[in-house]
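Researcher: Go.
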Amino acid sequence: MSVFGKNIRKIRSVRGLTQAQLAEMIDVSRGQISSYEEGRAEPKIETILKTAEVFHINTDLLLRGNLTVNQLAGFTLPDVSKSKPAPQQEQEPRLFRFLPRNTREIPAHELAPNPWVKKNDIVLAVPAKVLMGKMMIIHAAKGSFMGRISFEDAKNVSIDTAEKTLLQPRETLEVLGIYSPVQNLSPLEEKLLNLEARVQKLEMQLKSR
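Model: Structure:
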């Protein structure tokens, strides 16, 4: 298995993604993901760059290094246990220095159920115009939805996680990445989270029929 194959398998494991979900995020087929992980194929440069962009990982590290959980999470949380905070520039997570200043942190529980995030994830997004095929968050009267844009006109948009629902956006945000806090879960909590994810996935499949 290539280093890239090992690293994308670790990405899937840490983020709780299926091969199909990762494939859609980096614009390849599920079979290609399988080939990379099993060492039967090497990725194109476009795939490497897309993976690095989606997960905010340095391409050199992605191809040659052994990714850690902290690197896959996107950034490490500042130490808030100290009574005197460090200067802002030292306290700021490293990744945020490379993100736009208007980046928003949106907790997953504020979004309608979707296959991209888990309960405790935080979505990093910036205000942006609607673009077909882009992963976006739509704030509308019916709620807040996250998914790829599947339809748009002058007043309405639809996303792939709510294909039969037309939304009149109050605000649209482009998704930059997803932060998954590292947590020590009991076996029972892990089973419940996995069960919840399966139920959400099944609900999305039923809605799309």
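Model: Residues 3-73 form a domain with the 434 Repressor (Amino-terminal Domain) fold (CATH 1.10.260.40).
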